[in-house]
Amino acid sequence: MKTRRGFLKQLSIGTLGMGMLPTLAWTNTNEQQFGVQLYSFRKAMAKDPLMTLQQIAAIGIKEIESARSKKGLYYGLSPEEMKTACVDLGMTLKSGHVALDDNFQDTMEQAVASGQEYVICSSMPSRGQTVDNYKKVAEAFNKAGEACKKVGLKFGYHNHEYEFESENGQVLYDVLMDNTDPDLVHMELDLGWVIVGGKDPLDYFKKYPGRFPLWHLKDMNMKKRESTEFGKGGLDIKTLMRHQEASGVKHIFIEQEEYASTPIESMKHNMAYLRNL
């Protein structure tokens, strides 16, 4: 494990080598801050989390959402180490993808130690595609939200495409929305998976205004049903960005799981795309 002093020394040297300051020259406090879901860099984070965070910071990312891996919630770093690394690089660890399972108490304790605000259940804890199951899950989410609120955290849920399937004319995601307490369950809407599921995010902004404090901004190749660089897929990013207020979004995390070349080059493209909107 690298020491913090060693990491800072490495950062100082690496900054000069990467030309970090010119890269960051365009950012300022008046611009919208964008985050990234670290699953986008999953292989690099597993190999060298500190150096990967440095590279992420160098392209202007300001907020981080972690994702659990085989090495734990923070890719082998302790919660405190993850928090410190982000702060040293001018970023904020804002959220984390977790599982709602028997280890959830430990998950909450680690999240508190890391200083993050949100813990987001990354997928359905049970995959029964029925209204009854989604009502049961909604009840479990409300209880998890209560537990998180007691320790100063906010609980949420991240969708995929399957939640937009229907049973007896009822869209299952809508069942989840209608049976969760907005004060306890904070939805992270993955915009890419919404359109793959055959729905329009704008319709959800209208039906459930203010219910989506977090976004996953993810363009999608609709033929392959996989993520792609911004502007290359079926997501109308420009229109969605004009409807942030209706959705209630506070934090926008870019996520990309497949790449034209490398994750860092794709993320540079995505950031440049957002700058030019």
UniProtKB/TrEMBL annotation:
The keyword Isomerase applies. Pfam families: AP_endonuc_2. Residues 102-276 form the Xylose isomerase-like TIM barrel domain. SUPFAM superfamilies: Xylose isomerase-like (SSF51658). One of its GO terms (molecular function) is isomerase activity. Keywords: Isomerase. It comes from the Bacteria. PROSITE patterns: TAT (PS51318). InterPro entries: IolE/XylAMocC-like (IPR050312), TAT_signal (IPR006311), TAT_signal_bac_arc (IPR019546), Xyl_isomerase-like_sf (IPR036237), Xyl_isomerase-like_TIM-brl (IPR013022). This is Sugar phosphate isomerase/epimerase.
